[in-house]
């Protein structure tokens, strides 16, 4: 390694304005999004990156075809990391220490290449929703001395056209290209300083291979999430390296579905990886990109598969990986339909969400429903136009929706902290009572606790998973804030508990 060099890089995106905005949800055509209870995450150490092996000319100690020598940048680094943060916007930060090497390694421009699959509410698409052809964002960073290294990118939304709303961003890969035009670092792990790659998994949409429409991001397809199973949240994590070996951990929570195998069956965890390892000639070589498929068992609705070793895969049984680049993760259901993939979105999230339906199968319009949730902090005014809307939806359509028009709420002191709506007749889709009350944490405002009760209405749950959306006007009435969250449900056909 050379001298300790620290540099600060600032994103350069000519012709693109830097936008920071809150993504609102259109209830009429909201894409399916699955969130953990905390903010979704994609965070990874940076391993040494190598060019893909397209024409093997060598083999590993295991006899696996490979390309030798392994091709990488002449620029070097000591350690690095990348993280996506999803709060209001989706931002990406990457840091690398101790950049060194010949030529312009310490003075040239580095580029962060991101592989993304974006599904969004987009009125320019047929049907109002679309999955775009997979995108590669090349974000250029400029040197900003002095000397240490820090790469910082702006929001993903600022680099996309049209201000998309309701976006589900499936993250596939992240690679840093050095000034010499060759890959230097990538999301993954190695046998030294890169030991963890963690991604929350949410809705995994299929790739748009044959576009049938066009949207703000160009050629696109109608979104396809074909699995008959549903889930609430999950994560996939590669970890280890060195003497500890390399392992994959997989977690998926609250699996449900019409088939018993959804909750108690064999699913598949799949990782597309690029392994660079030892060749017969004792030099490093790179194996062609390989889709690792590992069985994981769901038991009582949960997958908790830890320490699945890379050494169980025959091609890599006796050759430790000097570098394992992660190019994509996914979970497939027992029928091998895509269930989940690393996913981020910038939507506001409801917390402590509960939905309960009580269905009357003998009398129409005699169902009942209760909703509880905490709406994120913000200055709201349910009494402002266009009113406050509550929508419960499943993958097959709207389960229940109601809008309480502006001006019908009763205010309680102190003003701005509580609103109540009561109607014994249930004239608005069966709603009898709603309360919105400021919540506090350690004495400080922490969003709004919301409760809704409705009866003598009709609910039409079409699956065992629901998404609750609450849209409330912002104080001043100039905009509406929408927060969402999903839950899977347990049901006996009459009662649905979603919490």
Structural descriptors:
499 residues, mainly beta, 21-stranded mixed beta sheet, 12-stranded mixed beta sheet, 1 helix, 1% helix, 54% strand, globular
Structure explained in plain terms:
It is a single chain. This protein has 499 residues and is mainly beta. Helices cover 1% and strands 54% of the residues. The protein has one helix spanning 260-263; strands at 6-12, 42-48, 58-59, 65-66, 79-87, 89-97, 110-121, 129-132, 135-148, 150-155, 165-177, 183-190, 196-203, 213-215, 218-221, 229-230, 233-240, 246-253, 256-257, 266-278, 284-286, 290-299, 302-309, 323-332, 338-344, 348-349, 351-358, 367-375, 388-394, 397-404, 410-412, 418-422, 431-441, 444-457, 465-473, 480-491, 495-498. The chain has a 21-stranded mixed β-sheet that branches. Strands 26, 27, 28, 29, 30, 31, 32, 33, 34, 35, 36 and 37 form a 12-stranded mixed β-sheet that branches. Residues 1-29 have low confidence and may be disordered.
């Amino acid at each position: 390694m050379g001298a300790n060099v620290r540099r600060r890089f600032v994103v350069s995106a000519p012709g693109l304005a830097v936008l920071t905005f809150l993504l609102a949800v259109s209830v009429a055509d909201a894409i399916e999004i699955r969130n953990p209870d905390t903010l979704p995450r994609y965070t990874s150490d940076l391993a040494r990156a190598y060019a893909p092996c397209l024409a093997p000319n060598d083999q590993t100690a295991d006899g696996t075809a490979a390309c030798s020598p392994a091709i990488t940048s002449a620029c070097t680094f000591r350690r690095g990391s990348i993280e996506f943060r999803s709060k209001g916007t989706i931002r990406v930060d990457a840091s690398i220490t101790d950049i060194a090497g010949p030529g312009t390694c310490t003075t040239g421009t580095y580029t962060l290449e991101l592989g993304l699959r974006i599904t969004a509410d987009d009125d320019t698409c047929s049907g109002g929703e679309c999955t775009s052809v997979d995108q590669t964002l090349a974000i250029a960073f400029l040197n900003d001395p002095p000397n240490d290294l820090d790469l910082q990118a702006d929001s993903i939304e600022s680099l996309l056209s049209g201000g998309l709303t309701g976006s589900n961003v499936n993250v596939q890969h992240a690679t840093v290209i050095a000034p010499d035009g060759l890959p230097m670092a990538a999301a993954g792990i190695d046998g030294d300083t890169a030991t963890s790659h963690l991604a929350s998994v949410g809705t995994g949409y299929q790739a748009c291979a044959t576009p049938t429409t066009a949207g703000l991001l160009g050629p696109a397809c109608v979104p396809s999430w074909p699995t008959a199973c549903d889930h609430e949240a999950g994560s996939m994590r590669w970890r280890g390296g060195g003497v500890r070996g390399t392992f994959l951990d997989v977690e998926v929570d609250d699996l449900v579905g019409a088939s018993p195998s959804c909750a108690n069956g064999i699913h598949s965890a799949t990782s597309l990886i690029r392994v660079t390892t030892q060749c017969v000639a004792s030099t490093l070589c790179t194996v062609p990109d390989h889709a690792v498929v590992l069985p994981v068992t769901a038991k009582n609705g949960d997958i908790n598969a830890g320490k699945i070793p890379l050494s169980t895969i025959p091609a890599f049984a006796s050759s430790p990986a000097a570098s394992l680049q992660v190019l994509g993760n996914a979970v497939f259901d027992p029928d091998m339909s895509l269930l989940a993939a690393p996913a981020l979105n910038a939507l506001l999230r409801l917390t402590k969400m509960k939905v309960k339906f009580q269905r009357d199968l003998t009398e129409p319009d005699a169902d009942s429903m209760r909703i509880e949730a905490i709406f994120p902090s913000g200055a709201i005014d349910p009494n402002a136009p266009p009113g406050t809307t509550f929508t419960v939806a499943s993958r097959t359509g709207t389960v229940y929706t109601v809008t309480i028009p502006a001006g019908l709420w009763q205010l309680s002191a102190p003003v701005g902290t509580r609103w109540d709506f009561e109607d014994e007749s249930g004239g608005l889709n069966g709603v009898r009572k709603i309360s919105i009350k400021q919540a506090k944490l350690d004495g400080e405002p922490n969003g709004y606790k919301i409760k809704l009760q409705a009866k003598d209405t009709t609910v039409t749950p079409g699956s065992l998973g629901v998404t609750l959306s609450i849209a409330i006007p912002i104080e001043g009435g100039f905009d509406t804030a929408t927060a969402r969250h999903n839950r899977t449900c347990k049901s006996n056909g009459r009662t649905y508990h979603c919490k």
